[in-house]
Amino acid sequence: MNYTHEWICCLWLALMLPDCSPRYMQLVEEYGAAVTVFENFEDIHKENPSLIRQVELERMRKTSPEQLFHRFENTLQKLKVDVIFLNSDEYPSILKQISSPPNVLFVRGKMPNEEALTVGIVGSRKCTSYGVEATRNIAYSLAEGGACIVSGLAEGIDAHASSAALECKSNSCPTVAVLGSGIDVVFPKCNESLYHAIIERGAVISQFCPNAQPASYTFPKRNKVIAGLSRCLIVSEAAKDSGALITADYAGKFGRKVFCIPGRITDWQSEGSNTLINSKKATLLLSIEQVIDECKKDSFENLQYNNIRSNKPKEKTQKTPAISKPAKPKIELDEKSMTIYNALLDGEKTFDELCIITGLSVPELNLSLTTMEFSRIIKQSQGRAYSIFCDI
Question: Cα dist. 275→239, 264, 271, 286, 300 in Å?
Fold first, then answer.
């Protein structure tokens, strides 16, 4: 990292202003450089007090760029932290598209390239075994196809999404974790090993100063960045007061597609995510293909997601990507799932056919099919037709 005087002034200006203040870019664009703002901040305040307010003027008078940088210099050097400013070419372009993006990002590790398919996965800290199974399968499948999973390093669904993505060794940047604390503050502590594993293979990022402790106001800001970095968002399990719902709300405001993995109606952990589906603020996620189709739209046409499995027909010039079948299913089949499996032994069946053959209700069949598909026991084709994907 080249700590030039201009770079140090950029950091100073970004941290002197409130988080995500659009005035950072206004000042840099109007005065040409952060160093010019530092050299003239008294005059700028007199000429335009709305650009540099009184409280910020007092802060600038008390802290020079060198003094502020000295507070963080050891942390930045020791942990090999990259600092990316909003007006730099390295800043993620997708994050620049949202309202009031962070003025500065602290990064450990390697960010995905601009063409990567970034998919946010968030959910409950107190997740069920069903939520864990569904999350890990979908995160791994997406990472296997080249996607980068964006999450928040929280306990539960977030941690499972990132750790499952890391299991895909062929992906050069399988996951990014956005922190609700300083880049050097691991929260919760139980995810410290995961934090370091993500740095080795992907990236950990924060908009907060080094040493900043997590607080109630930092997590909604963290959630906003997760939504901003994601081409689409998947909510796995979310209680009615879950922070994942904040992320989903931001994603909707930013024009991102929101999917929800359906949860059991008896599980309070899924009350929020099921409500999102019911209110049409999210789409029921039944297959990986839905995510691919959403991200194949014109606005994302250059994304890299070549190896993600799709049942859509491909042109003859393209090589159909292969997905290895697991040696055995990752879960034990319950009675309903076994009934479905036996019905598929003699060939592909549509949803309506399975409803008649198995005698299961529509909600029961939906839930069992989703679980079996995420576990890669069955696969879904066009027209909601199902067939066996992995023998048991």
Answer: 9, 12, 6, 16, 28
> Three-class SS of residue 243?
helix
CATH of domain 335-388: 1.10.10.10
Full 3-state SS string of 133-184: HHHHHHHHHHHHCCCEEEECCCCCHHHHHHHHHHCCCCCCCCEEEECCCCCC
Fold classification of 118-300 (topology level): Rossmann fold (3.40.50)
Domains of the chain, by residue range, sit at: 5-78, 118-300, 335-388
Question: Residues 94-135: pLDDT tens digits?
Answer: 999 999 999 999 999 999 998 889 999 999 888 888 888 889
- 């899924």: which residue's tokens? 270
8 A C-beta contact, residue 269 and residue 238: yes
Confidence of residue 315 (pLDDT cuts 50, 70, 90): very low
pTM of the shown model: 0.76
Of 89 and 290, more confident: 89
